Amino acid sequence: MVRVILPHHLRTLARVDSELVLDIAGPATVDSALDALEARYPMLRGTIRDHVTKHRRPFIRFFACEQDVSHKPTDTPLPTAVASGTEPLLIVGAMAGG
After folding, report:
1. Residue 89 gets which letter from DSSP?
2. pLDDT per residue over 15-56, tens digit each?
3. Pairwise CA distance, residues 38 & 16, whole Å
4. Three-state SS for 56?
5. How far apart are CA 2 and CA 57, in angstroms?
6. DSSP type of residue 78
7. Closest residue by Cα to residue 6 from 69, 57, 61
8. Given this structure, which CATH class describes domain 2-93?
9. What is residue 63's three-state secondary structure?
10. How far apart are CA 40 and CA 9, in angstroms?
11. What are the domain boundaries of the chain?
12. By C-alpha distance, which of 39, 15, 11 is closest to 25?
């Protein structure tokens, strides 16, 4: 079980009010969490990662246990606290500008 917290605009798109709880088959990774998220909420396909390449969209970041895991390989196992549901996986929409 992995808990996921989405940014407000993606919660609105998915029509959820708070964090999500996803059942993950196999090791908990960013890829497996996103696969489960997109299977359960198909309207989110393509919003977090590209349809074809599966690369993270610009301005999207992943945080696990207060660490930015956005630039790690997406098949890297998530920390035990996230994989067990103690801590959430945060998907954050980064801000840019001057």
Report:
1. E
2. 999 899 999 989 999 999 999 999 999 999 999 999 899 999
3. 14
4. strand
5. 21
6. P
7. 61
8. alpha beta
9. strand
10. 17
11. 2-93
12. 39
